[in-house]
């Protein structure tokens, strides 16, 4: 039984991905597309029994752009319009590709862009599919179109308008933010993007006491990585000659280090990246300066946060008295909370809320059905965010589901023999219940 299970695991690992040659003195085993066969070697001294001596293993990637015979030739519905501003309801359910030069900046797809954790949280599982398909394809969906239409008709002389994107788990809230990030970047906004905040509550890299605010807790390494992420997305704004993005007062970091008034904001970011112990405070300075600058100039800031309700829920960071650090003592959370307030203008705030990964005991025993903002934001989060515009993200429509399956067959992410048949599509629809995340998990195994 154990050998059969091991063989199944090996077969699933190798199917359609690699060709492996295992050479011994007597025979060569070849694994290709999940099937194994023996090939006799010339002058074999032992043609009957398998030689158990250590084998030489070499892996040769299969580079084959042809469509397998058992797969139908399918072309997913796409649009050549790459500017999100020009997307309309006529394009709903279609795919479009983010230009590579923009994809590298917004999502950090370049391998040398740094801040790996930030890139992984931004795209999550979408990143692997983009790397396989060699293109940054995003499905155009109604919630993103709705927010873009609101933003295009916003009066930025008024206090910021806040949007809360909610929906069933796996319905595509983070992918909606992915589309909106491209929209804001294309419109010339300064991006203040905070991906997957809930991870900081559980998987932190380093913890230290705040140098400037006694009683607060800093996450220095995570803060450095976020500053690198911010610098990557907004480098062209920060490095412009005669930029208005400058400090209005002097910031003293130590007896020998200070940033004088009138310095570019990039100097603040450089201090945080080079000196990790100041990184949390540099984020606080950056947030305060950006809110002041955009309220007095023609610059605009788009605050885009994934799982914003994590800012108001407990963490798992331990304390000496065996309790955990509350969210209102975490410097990073307090700084980002300030961006959610509507005490500034020339900006927009787009957030999502989620149950997954939230460290909050009541959520474990409520049945898992309540996804509404009033419940997930809790009293403190509601007090900060209210009033806001709620945007619901539903599961795939039949049109979106069909085009998603077509795209995955076209890019060979889905290679099952029945993938292109109507029976196979109906089965995927029933089992996934049109939920994008469930559908992705199903297709990744076929």
UniProtKB/TrEMBL annotation:
<dbReference type="GO" id="GO:0006915">
    <property type="term" value="P:apoptotic process"/>
</dbReference>
<keyword id="KW-0809">Transit peptide</keyword>
<dbReference type="InterPro" id="IPR008092">
    <property type="entry name" value="Ribosomal_mS29_met"/>
</dbReference>
<keyword id="KW-0689">Ribosomal protein</keyword>
<dbReference type="Pfam" id="PF10236">
    <property type="entry name" value="DAP3"/>
</dbReference>
<dbReference type="InterPro" id="IPR019368">
    <property type="entry name" value="Ribosomal_mS29"/>
</dbReference>
<protein>
    <recommendedName>
        <fullName>Small ribosomal subunit protein mS29</fullName>
    </recommendedName>
</protein>
<keyword id="KW-0496">Mitochondrion</keyword>
<dbReference type="GO" id="GO:0003735">
    <property type="term" value="F:structural constituent of ribosome"/>
</dbReference>
<comment type="similarity">
    <text>Belongs to the mitochondrion-specific ribosomal protein mS29 family.</text>
</comment>
<keyword id="KW-0687">Ribonucleoprotein</keyword>
<dbReference type="GO" id="GO:0005763">
    <property type="term" value="C:mitochondrial small ribosomal subunit"/>
</dbReference>
